[in-house]
Amino acid sequence: MKALYIQQARTELTEHIVYGKLAAREKNPENRAALEKLSAQELTHYEFWKTLLPAEIDPKPHALTVFVTPLLRIVLGATFTTKLLEGHETNAVANYKAILSQIPATHQERLKLIIEDEKSHEMALIGEIKEKRVAYLGFIVLGLADAIVEITGVHAGFLGVTGETLIAGVAGIIVGFAAAISMGSASYLQAKQDPDKSAFISAFATGGAYLFSVVLLALPYFLIRSMVPAFVLSTSVGIILIAFFTFYGTVVFEGRKFWREFFEATGLMLGTAVATFVWGYIVGQIFHVNTGNF
User: Which of 81, 84, 201, 255 is in Cβ range 3.0-4.6 Å of 73 for a Cys bridge?
Assistant: First the structure.
């Protein structure tokens, strides 16, 4: 049991330190207050597990988590980072319940309170954290998802028409640029109907995410001179992007299933690629694009 106590103490101490670091860097007063509450709560949990250990044992935090998590907050936001940290709580609650009857009777009531904290209070505190990036996440995902499907389709179509990677890459960039403007404009008009969202930020989020995806998907066609390897690499980049935004969404929003959404989005992308490849091949044969006799 001592090893389990040390493990739990280390986890709670790590999260206490991490939440403290996140709070210190948070500019929003409400977010900072929520993170400070989380940090204080994790400290009390650590102190509980420490009372079950001999005085000479001094658990240390997980150094890598303490170092990496604030960096994740900078890139991916406070909501994602805190929910990712608390993602292990389902298993933690199950473990706590399993050992409840095994710990000293004098500590059992306190552990029951900690279980309730882990089940509800901490998620309620996390729910207090508000971020603009989460409010506009739907627009970002819209831009990424639409670009992955559409531009992969464009590249697949040219795979059926020509063996020139440069042509496929340039076509993807041109089509993608126009589509990014179109998608951004559509998001702008949509957001104007919502008083809680900025139409400009919505347009920028959608168009920017779209253009970002376009560049990444087109890049292999400028680096590789063989059409099939370039297409495979570009499609792999698309799948990685799908995995990223699907994972992000499943962490931030409760009730979402990663594998189901990942396979749905990947299937749509690959299905579009197959359809446009066949269509590109047919059009190429009709107009003799491969032979140049058109």
Answer: 81
Whole-number Cα distances in Å, 99 to 17, 53, 89:
26, 15, 15
Q: What is the distance between the alpha carbons of residues 275 and 269, in angstroms, rounded to a whole number? A: 10
Q: Which residue shows structure tokens 């066609």?
A: 221
Closest CA to 156 of 141, 175, 179, 140: 175
Q: pLDDT tens across 19-69, in order?
A: 899 899 888 888 888 889 889 988 998 999 898 888 888 899 999 999 998
Host domain of residue 121: 2-130
Rounded-to-integer distance, Cα 294 and Cα 288, Å: 6
User: pLDDT tens digits, residue range 173-189?
Assistant: 999 999 999 999 998 98
SS3 call for 27: coil
Residues 148 and 259 in one domain: yes
Quick one: how far is CA 261 from the chain centroid? Answer: 13
Q: Which residues of the chain have pLDDT under 50?
A: 291-294
Question: Is the domain of 89 the same as that of 150?
Answer: no
Q: Are 14 and 65 in contact (CB under 8 A)?
A: yes
How many domains are there within the chain?
2
Q: Rounded to an integer, what distance in angstroms lies between the CA atom of residue 227 and that of residue 215?
A: 17
Whether the CB-CB separation of 282 and 163 falls below 8 Å is answered with no
d(CA 160, CA 154): 10
Report residue 253: phi and psi, to 5°.
Answer: -110, 125
Task: Give pTM, 2 decimals.
Answer: 0.79
| DSSP string over 87-116 | GGHHHHHHHHHHHGGGS-HHHHHHHHHHHH
What pLDDT is stored for residue 90 in this prediction?
A: 60
